[in-house]
User: What shape does this take?
Amino acid sequence: MTAKNNQIRGKFITVEGVEGVGKSTNAEFVRDQIQQAGFEVIVSREPGGTATGERIRSILLDKEEHQMTALTELLLMFAARSQHIEQVIRPALETGVWVLSDRFTDSSFAYQGGGRLLAPGVIEQLQDIVVGDCRPDLVLILDLDVETGLARASRRSAADRFELEQQAFFERVRNTFLERSKLPGYQLIDASQPLEAVQHDIFSALQAILR
Assistant: This one.
């Protein structure tokens, strides 16, 4: 696929996983590898990535929003995602710039599908409407047992609305990520290893797309 200005389309990579797996640290590593390979890249996140998305993010993470329904949460996620795609992701890819996002649609399947028990079909319908053909070229799923991940997250910052959920919620989230990691274009990374080993595995997973 070529962009309107005849440049080669950029690549789209996402980093996924439960709380405390080290997404931010390892996204920086991925960004560095892309840049060292000679490609321009922008780093973004979900929910967020735009002014509108960041305002939606603040609502989604607000501990006072304890009465928010699962469907409302899902719709807000996709509202932020729609803005993210149209304002940031698609324009960058069409000009040959790579995009690296901390979370994308797989988090909706994991958190609102697995965690909140919403039917996957509902999420798939929204994905078709909002995401369309703007799908990641590579999804890196960092995997870690829930207890360790939550302990790491608790040392990082005060708990947000999601992090206040019970362990069973996050077990369902993790299991959904593990199931999705079997799809084509997905790479499962064992985040329980020392950081050097984690990044070695990420580097290996990136080689095909960087070439």
